[in-house]
Write a structure and sequence with these properties.
164 residues, mainly alpha, 9 helices, globular
Length: 164
C-alpha cells in the first residue's frame, strides 16, 4: 500500500476509507454500491445461501470497478480489494467472537447488525459481507492458508475459487 500511496494522488488522504472518501458524494456510484452491498448481505441471510445474489453482487462490484476506477483512479481496484480483505477480516473476526458460545454468545443476526454499525464504513461493511459469503462457501481451515502465505490473496479471489 505504501507504493500505491507514493505513486498516486487521489486528492484525499490515503486510508482504508479512500474509496468512500472519493466517491461518497457521487449519487450514481452510491446507487451501484448500495445495490451491490444489498445483494451480498441478502445472499447470506439465514437459513438460506443464495449464490445467484452473490454472483449478482460480484457482477455489480466488477461493473463499479470498471465504470469508476479509470484514469487517475485505475489502481483503486487493487486498493479496494486489499482493504475489503483486511477490514473485512477484522469484522469477521469480531463476528466470530460475538457468536461463539465462549465469546459473546449472541445470535447471528444480532451480531451481524452490531458488527455492521449501520454501514458507516464501506470497506469494513462490504468486506464483512464478503467474509460471510466465503464462510458459507468454505471454512477458514480451507482458505486461511491461501490468504496468509507468501502473498495475500483477496477475499474476492477466494470467493471466486469456491463459488461454482
Amino acid at each position: 500500500m505504501t507504493l500505491f500511496e507514493k505513486q498516486n494522488n487521489f486528492g484525499v488522504e490515503f486510508t482504508d476509507d479512500i474509496v468512500q472518501d472519493i466517491f461518497s458524494k457521487d449519487s450514481s456510484y452510491l446507487n451501484l454500491y448500495n445495490k451491490e452491498l444489498q445483494n451480498l448481505y441478502q445472499s447470506v441471510q439465514d437459513p438460506t445461501f443464495d449464490k445467484v445474489l452473490v454472483k449478482d453482487g460480484l457482477r455489480l462490484m466488477s461493473q463499479r470497478h470498471s465504470d469508476y476506477f479509470k484514469s487517475q483512479f485505475s489502481s483503486l481496484k487493487e486498493i479496494d480489494n486489499f482493504f475489503l480483505t483486511m477490514e473485512g477480516l477484522g469484522q469477521y473476526s469480531m463476528y466470530l467472537w460475538l457468536t461463539h458460545p465462549k465469546g459473546g454468545n449472541l445470535k447471528k443476526d444480532i451480531a451481524i447488525k452490531g458488527v455492521r454499525r449501520g454501514g458507516k464504513w464501506w470497506s469494513q461493511d462490504e468486506g464483512f459481507a464478503l467474509f460471510l459469503i466465503l464462510d458459507k462457501l468454505s471454512k477458514p481451515a480451507t482458505w486461511a492458508k491461501n490468504m496468509f502465505g507468501y502473498k495475500t490473496e483477496s477475499v474476492i479471489d477466494l470467493i471466486g475459487k469456491h463459488l461454482p
